[in-house]
Q: What sequence folds into this?
């Protein structure tokens, strides 16, 4: 599938102080791609409302170069997403996957690297309301990755990201899934 671009129609790039390009990828390109396409159509508006109205959010979607490696786990997937982000010139990249994520046998909703400006969201951890939960999780993840989430002075990007993913928690609330930071 070729990359598709979705933009916030509320304003033009000339009106915004900054343009931030968000790359959304799906792996494998089956069910995650369906969720991705529905989310991508509205993500720039969600980011405008939740994160920063002065930013022109550009959302690009696709897959192909990112595929899960059986031998490397989530860290290998994050590295592959980071390479794709760099190759495509995206500011931030988020991967939606139907692979279950875990750390020490604890299911994770998301795992991210602030240093690499990439994150992975596990759709199985979001439960039955995956699109609705992704609408909440992905903008928060993007917000943390671009550095605007935390009001905590002196917090490192990884600390801000960890708090954001903990705040997203699991979907539905109380299911026990945790942070992958």
A:
């Amino acid at each position: 599938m070729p990359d598709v671009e979705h933009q916030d129609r509320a304003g033009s790039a000339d009106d915004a102080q900054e343009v931030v390009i968000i790359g959304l990828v799906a792996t494998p390109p089956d069910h995650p791609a369906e969720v991705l396409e529905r989310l991508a159509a509205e993500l720039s508006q969600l980011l405008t409302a939740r994160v920063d109205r002065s930013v022109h959010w550009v959302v690009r979607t696709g897959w192909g170069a990112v595929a899960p490696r059986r031998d490397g786990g989530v860290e290998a997937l994050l590295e592959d997403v980071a390479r794709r982000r760099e190759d495509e010139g995206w500011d931030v990249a988020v991967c939606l996957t139907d692979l279950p994520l875990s750390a020490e046998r604890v299911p994770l909703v998301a795992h991210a690297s602030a240093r690499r400006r990439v994150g992975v969201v596990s759709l199985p951890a979001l439960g039955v309301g995956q699109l609705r939960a992704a609408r909440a999780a992905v903008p928060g993840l993007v917000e943390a990755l671009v550095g605007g989430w935390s009001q905590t002075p002196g917090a490192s990007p990884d600390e801000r990201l960890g708090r954001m993913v903990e705040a997203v928690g699991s979907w539905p609330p109380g299911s026990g899934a945790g942070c992958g930071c």
Q: What stands out?
A: Residues 4 and 133 are 22 Å apart (CA to CA). The chain has one domain: 4-180. The first helix runs from residue 31 to 50.
